[in-house]
């Protein structure tokens, strides 16, 4: 699609937050129950471990923890809307977001879920920026939360190793175009002809055509990133930090190579968390902010790809969040 820019006030990132379930499953743990090896998983995906939610931890629980951390970090005077991007809502009906809002003592504000696979967080940023541009909201809490580890069949070695659970959140406030943290032009897209490539009729029934998904992911994230950078007036050589959806380190390395972004400018945490779906980008932002890999002034390009097929990208200059307290535990509330 043609990159779009909201025509009212800009949406500005003013805080980040994150949450991971405490239980960690290593590749070696998986070898005890699946016909796989640590070497196979690491060499094909870059993943060494992932956090897995127990039966007592819902998507809403993770979303509340990440959102609460973002709110604590920015202490906005008001929150006008809440969006939860997720592919794994706790129930088909009702949506997860109203319960999350109520648990955050935000009962009464508009709150809705948004499903766009692993691109969900970028779609949620775009719709939230639209609410701010239209004057419908001044501050929006945007959460990506998923329990993707619940989707594969527990005995499917081709998908179980790939996924983990978690949530990340950002606070978007009304601001001015071009100021640090302001979301730049949005590139979003979808292609339903690829709907069967990643599909799950219910938890435990995930089907993924890995090789095809791999190819589409590289092509779509590269193209969207290029468009977003151009629309923002950036040369790709000027990108300081590439923040790709953490699907798999081979995919993200290919994207970086296609864009000509040096490997060292690409942020990654897939080794520790696996593919966490809509939580992937905000989890990585929170982590990289906490450990200093993401600094004020960094020209930052976010890009994602997921089931649908869906994809997107957005450029922003990373803001100074120094008033924000660093999340505990090296970047994640646990
Ligand atoms: O948000 C997007 C989400 N999707 C993704 O990120 C997935 C994108 N795709 C991929 O990352 C890769 O396609 C995979 C990591 C899923 C698979 O890597 P691949 O290099 O495409 O492997 P493959 O599917 O072609 O399988 C190669 C072999 C097969 O054996 P045969 O048929 O050659 O004998 C598989 O059965 O590897 C086998 N295999 C495994 N072996 C050990 C598949 N999974 C495993 C495993 N351990 N866990």
UniProtKB/TrEMBL annotation:
The Beta-ketoacyl-[acyl-carrier-protein] synthase III N-terminal domain, residue ranges: 112-192
GO biological process, one term: fatty acid biosynthetic process
Free-text domain note: The last Arg residue of the ACP-binding site is essential for the weak association between ACP/AcpP and FabH.
Subunit structure comment from the entry: Homodimer.
Beta-ketoacyl-[acyl-carrier-protein] synthase III C-terminal domain residues: 231-318
Molecular functions per Gene Ontology: 3-oxoacyl-[acyl-carrier-protein] synthase activity; beta-ketoacyl-acyl-carrier-protein synthase III activity
ACP-binding, as annotated region: 246-250
Top-level taxon of the source organism: Bacteria
List of catalytic residues: 118, 245, 275
Membership in a protein family: Belongs to the thiolase-like superfamily. FabH family.
UniProt-recorded name of the protein: Beta-ketoacyl-[acyl-carrier-protein] synthase III
PANTHER family: 3-OXOACYL-[ACYL-CARRIER-PROTEIN] SYNTHASE 3 (PTHR34069), BETA-KETOACYL-[ACYL-CARRIER-PROTEIN] SYNTHASE III (PTHR34069:SF2)
Pathway where this protein functions: Lipid metabolism; fatty acid biosynthesis
Organism (species): Streptomyces finlayi
Gene that this polypeptide is encoded by: fabH
InterPro entries given in the database record: ACP_syn_III_C (IPR013747), ACP_syn_III_N (IPR013751), FabH (IPR004655), Thiolase-like (IPR016039)
Function, as annotated: Catalyzes the condensation reaction of fatty acid synthesis by the addition to an acyl acceptor of two carbons from malonyl-ACP. Catalyzes the first condensation reaction which initiates fatty acid synthesis and may therefore play a role in governing the total rate of fatty acid production. Possesses both acetoacetyl-ACP synthase and acetyl transacylase activities. Its substrate specificity determines the biosynthesis of branched-chain and/or straight-chain of fatty acids.
Entry keyword set: Acyltransferase, Cytoplasm, Fatty acid biosynthesis, Fatty acid metabolism, Lipid biosynthesis, Lipid metabolism, Multifunctional enzyme, Transferase
GO cellular component, one term: cytoplasm
EC assignment: 2.3.1.180
Reaction(s) this enzyme catalyzes, per UniProt: malonyl-[ACP] + acetyl-CoA + H(+) = 3-oxobutanoyl-[ACP] + CO2 + CoA
Subcellular location: Cytoplasm
């Amino acid at each position: 699609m043609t990159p779009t820019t909201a025509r009212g006030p800009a949406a500005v990132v003013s805080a980040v937050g994150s949450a991971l379930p405490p239980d960690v499953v290593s590749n070696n743990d998986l070898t005890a129950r699946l016909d796989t090896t640590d070497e196979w998983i690491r060499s094909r995906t870059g993943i060494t471990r992932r956090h897995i939610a127990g039966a007592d931890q819902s998507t809403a629980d993770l979303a509340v923890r990440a959102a609460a951390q973002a709110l604590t970090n920015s202490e906005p005077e008001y929150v006008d809307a809440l969006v939860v991007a997720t592919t794994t809502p706790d129930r088909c009906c009702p949506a997860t977001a109203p319960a999350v809002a109520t648990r955050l003592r935000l009962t009464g504000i508009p709150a809705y879920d948004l499903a766009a696979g692993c691109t969900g967080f970028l779609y949620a940023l775009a719709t939230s920026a639209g609410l701010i541009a239209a004057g419908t909201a001044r501050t929006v809490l945007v959460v990506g939360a998923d329990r993707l580890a619940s989707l594969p069949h527990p005995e499917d070695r081709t998908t179980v190793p790939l996924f983990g659970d978690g949530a990340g959140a950002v606070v978007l406030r009304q601001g001015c175009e071009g100021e640090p943290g302001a979301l730049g032009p949005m590139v979003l897209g979808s292609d339903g002809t690829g709907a069967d490539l990643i599909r799950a009729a219910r938890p435990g029934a995930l089907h993924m055509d890995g090789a095809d998904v791999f190819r589409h992911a590289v092509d779509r994230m590269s193209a969207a990133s290029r468009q977003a950078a151009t629309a923002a007036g950036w040369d790709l050589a000027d990108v300081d930090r590439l923040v790709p959806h953490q699907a798999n380190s081979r995919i993200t390395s290919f994207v970086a190579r296609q864009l000509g972004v040096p490997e060292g400018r690409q942020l990654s945490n897939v080794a520790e968390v696996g593919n966490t779906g809509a939580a992937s980008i905000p989890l990585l932002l929170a982590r990289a902010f906490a450990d200093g890999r993401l600094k004020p002034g960094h020209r930052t390009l976010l890009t994602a790809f997921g089931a649908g097929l869906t994809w997107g990208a957005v450029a922003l200059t990373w803001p100074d969040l120094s008033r924000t307290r660093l999340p505990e535990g090296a970047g994640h509330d646990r």
